[in-house]
Design a protein that fits this description.
Layout: E1 8-14, E2 17-23, H1 33-41, E3 49-54, E4 64-69, E5 74-75, H2 79-91, E6 97-102, E7 105-111, E8 116-120, E9 146-149, E10 152-156, E11 159-162, E12 166-171, H3 180-188, E13 198-206, E14 209-216, E15 220-222, H4 226-238, E16 245-250, E17 253-259, E18 266-271, E19 273-279
Parallel strand pairs: 2-3, 12-13, 14-16
Antiparallel strand pairs: 1-2, 1-19, 3-4, 4-5, 6-7, 7-8, 8-18, 9-10, 11-12, 13-14, 14-15, 16-17, 17-18
Length: about 290
């Protein structure tokens, strides 16, 4: 029998960003990419990210979280998924403010309401090696990258930011003028991104309001992406297009992002929703 058979899970979402949470604390079970893909393929379980909660590794944290994209690859950060993990843990007795760890580092989670959480996503990394890029770029607010977009103006000069994973943000006059579903695969895998990249189209509506659409690496088009919202605000501030605190409107709803001047950390606040809970059937992994 597969070790995940019979294990409980929760199907959740953060602004429509589909999340499956799997709590493996107290076990030595390690999820494989094959198991992650099998869960995604199961009836009603298709997800954007699988958040696997393990016993803590670092003192002072309550858990270590592995994050799988639906193609079985791993991600360093998922803001919407981390809020879902925070809900699972506070329901299980965690305090209203606590630390979890991912491959990207230690994150502080804070409960703001029954279904609303703030996650400290840490400080952005902005150097070309830290994104990472495959070549030196002196100005990461607008790197040398251009892609024709049919009838719409060409996409060029994206800002790049690492928020636990690499992001490229194109600022455009109208995000509806572009077919991101068609453009995303080629941009995600452009040779300039050796680890691929999340691709965002951002439209600044006001100094405190930005519309955003996201193509997530290893996932595709998504209703919401928390780390992309954080990366977009950072990029907009660096270009002089936004205040340090703004509402980011995604297809799934609004996130509130604050790039703090005090320590340079990016704070993300938004809701989560529990869709249903269950246990994994052995047939999923056959």
């Amino acid at each position: 029998m597969d070790p995940l058979a019979g294990r409980p899970f929760a199907r959740m979402n953060g602004l429509g960003n589909e999340i499956v949470t799997l709590d493996l604390r107290g076990t030595d079970i390690v999820v494989t990419p094959q198991q992650a893909r099998a869960i995604h393929a199961a009836d009603r379980l298709a997800y954007d990210q699988l958040m696997v909660i393990h016993d803590p590794v670092t003192a002072g944290t309550l858990a270590f979280v592995r994050i799988f994209n639906n193609d079985g690859t791993e991600s360093g950060a998922c803001g919407n998924g981390t809020r879902c993990v925070a809900w699972i843990m506070t329901r299980g007795g965690a305090p209203d403010r606590f630390l979890v760890e991912t491959k990207a580092g230690v994150l502080e989670c804070a409960r703001e309401g029954d279904w609303t959480f703030t996650v400290d996503m840490g400080a952005p990394r902005l150097g070309w090696r830290d994104i990472p890029l495959s070549r030196e770029e002196a100005d990461t607010t607008a790197i040398h990258l251009r892609r024709e977009a049919g009838a719409a103006p060409a996409l060029e000069g994206p800002a790049v930011v690492n928020m636990g994973n690499p992001h490229a943000v194109f600022f455009v006059a109208d995000i509806e003028a572009y077919n991101l579903g068609a453009l995303g695969p080629g941009l995600e895998t452009d040779p300039v991104f050796p680890q691929k990249a999340n691709i965002s189209l951002a439209q600044v509506l006001a100094p405190d309001h930005i519309r955003l659409k996201v193509w997530e690496r290893g996932v595709g088009l998504t209703q919401a992406c928390g780390s992309a919202a954080c990366a977009t605000l950072v990029a907009a501030v660096r270009r002089g297009l936004s205040q340090r605190r703004a509402r980011i409107t995604l297809p799934g709803g609004d996130l509130f992002i604050d790039w703090r001047e005090s320590d340079g950390h990016v704070m993300m606040t938004g809701p989560v929703e529990l869709e249903f809970e269950g246990v994994f059937d052995e047939a999923i992994f056959a």
